């Protein structure tokens, strides 16, 4: 019995050790997002609360905490409350399999990449449930758009993951990183990296694909009826999801925790710092894209997903597989 | 082992009770959400017996794609109202014999399967599946699926392809008067073929219809 308690305490400690930094960095990343966005547009951005406006997110969180939570009279109460909870939970449990170093991971499972893929495909439920339970037209339209968009872009992300898996020969995230010791996959699979990046934008409902919450058409999409802490949970879940996608991108293509070159000043920096650098790099790209690209129209979005990205990534699977087979480079041979 | 048994019973309880709730709940959207809960618990059970690949594929395919479509259809059609009318009218009695027949067939099949498992324990060892515990189950599924069962695998792929094409053909309808965007035409437009300078004669105007 004591063994069980020990295991439970140890695991809880590990989970807290991961989750608290993730939550804090989600708050910081919101600030970073707004700052980068402002700098691209030659504005100042949030700079009043604390040094460089660093505590802006904390102030926002406090504001949300003390606001009243309004539940519409005709809403389906249980599902209405469950929706932000599910979004938040799904965005956080994905972090369990992210390896921050060779032995720095909570759950080192064999099918890690499938787990991440499953979690990201589940996150559509928070949005659909929120939109439906609000029982009003704008949220419902927003949630339908979002579901169609996420399901479409998941397909191309899945095919891109197959490309990487062909080169690795394992579904374990650690093996995927270790397979990039000689060369990061971003070099041989560069077109796939670009498509992955754009699909990740669509999967996380970021601009230019933020149609589910297009302010000009749908007020705020599926979040229209939410207020106070429940809105904040949607918002935190969204940013945690973006960070998770950035982490997935850096593990699949940018060599995870590996240093770019194995020489002194680079390999002196600890592993997890490298992963954080890569996540931040991808996130700053996300933020820059938000500032410089106008929103897509809905039919253009669908056309891009199904008629351009899916065929391109499928063709690339054939090319990768043929190359590996012809030169006898298939892993496991 | 204790924790394992405990978790098994927790998951089985959730799975069975949510399966009951799928049929029992009045609101159809709730039914679909219970169905999703059922899928998730079943995939947890798969993971518990070590079939992690199956569990994850179950999550991705059923919960991530199929159930989303279910939810869509149920939300769009006002099923709750139809169900109410259906139960109050006399039509429902016509469907009961068919339902009973299907339930009896499923019950019979389940009896055969479970009975075979229970009373003929050597049925597992008589199956010629090579159980290799050294490699992960993703590898072993791949090794069997793409060698021994490649023809069946491709056949099922063909069936799915035909079903997909059939669905597209059935729902496709040509709409006239639709303006489609052509990126190529848009980008290759030149100033010379899109801007025209016309001298307008005073008090006469020009005919701009073309």
Question: What report would you give on this structure?
Answer:
The complex is a heterodimer of chains A (333) and B (210). Chain A is built from 13 helices and no strands. Chain A has one domain (67-326). The termini of chain A are far apart. Chain A is an all-alpha fold and 333 residues long. Chain A has helices at residues 2-40, 56-66, 77-93, 112-122, 124-133, 137-168, 173-178, 190-203, 215-218, 228-252, 264-267, 271-292, 298-326. Chain A is globular and about 65 Å long. Chain B is an all-alpha fold and 210 residues long. Chain B has a domain at 133-165. Helices cover 72% and strands 0% of the residues of chain B. Chain B has helices spanning 2-24, 28-48, 52-76, 79-88, 92-119, 123-126, 137-145, 150-171, 183-187, 191-194. In chain B, helix 1 runs antiparallel to helix 2 (28-48) and helix 2 packs antiparallel against helix 3 (52-76). The longest helix of chain B has 28 residues, at 92-119. Chain B is elongated, with a radius of gyration of 29 Å. Chain A binds chain B through residues 4, 76, 79, 109-111, 114-115, 117-118, 121-122, 124-125, 128-129, 132, 140, 144, 147, 151, 154, 158, 171, 299-300, and chain B through 2-3, 27, 29, 33, 36, 52-53, 56-57, 59-60, 63-65, 68, 71-72, 75, 136-138, 181.
Average pLDDT of chain A, rounded to a whole number, is: 85
Give the helices and strands of chain A as they follow along the chain.
HHHHHHHHHHHHH
Number of helices of chain A: 13
- Count of discrete structural domains of chain A: 1
Q: Spell the H/E element sequence of chain B.
A: HHHHHHHHHH
Head-to-tail CA distance between termini of chain B = 83 Å
Helix content of chain B: over 70%
Largest interface (CB within 8 Å) is between:
A-B, 26 and 23 residues
Morphology call of chain B: elongated
Stretches of chain A where pLDDT is under 50 for at least 5 consecutive residues are none
Strand content of chain A: under 5%
Biggest β-sheet of chain A, characterized?
none
Helix vs. strand class of chain A: mainly alpha
Strand content of chain B: under 5%
How large, in whole angstroms, is the Cα Rg of chain A? 21 Å
Q: Biggest sheet of chain B, in brief?
A: none
Uncertain ranges of chain B: none
Number of strands of chain B: 0
Mean pLDDT of chain B, to the nearest integer, reads 81
Assembly level: heterodimer
* Class by alpha and beta content of chain B: mainly alpha
